[in-house]
Amino acid sequence: MSDLDAAMAAAASGLSAQTMRMRIAAENMANANSTGQTPGSDPFRRRIPVLQGAELKSGDAFGVMVVGAIQDQSDFRLQYNPAHPAADASGMVKMPNVDTMIEMMDMREAARAYEANLSMLDTSRSLTSRTLDILRR
Hints:
By secondary structure, this protein is α+β, with helices and mostly antiparallel strands.
């Protein structure tokens, strides 16, 4: 595998990983108000993607892959709402541990990393094309 192929493989793995990061952040934001259905039941728990460096198929390049997602074990927020079906005896409802501002920042960071990997792919493709043009002469 050439250096350009290795660069393209690493960038492609980065694109895949950043896509997963954005998907998980979007799921977290979509469930930011998802409470339990019964008193005392837990609401949606924020998920955090787990990325790991990985040797790519050829063995000549390293990239990144998503190995899963773990649940954020931080405390749930409590909100007073005695009319809610999930309210406990004191009228408190457990709310998800999702902070939409943090999720937005995670999405922006993943989007910028995605753009950087895409730029790396474009550059590698351009260099390959230039090399082929030189060899044709």
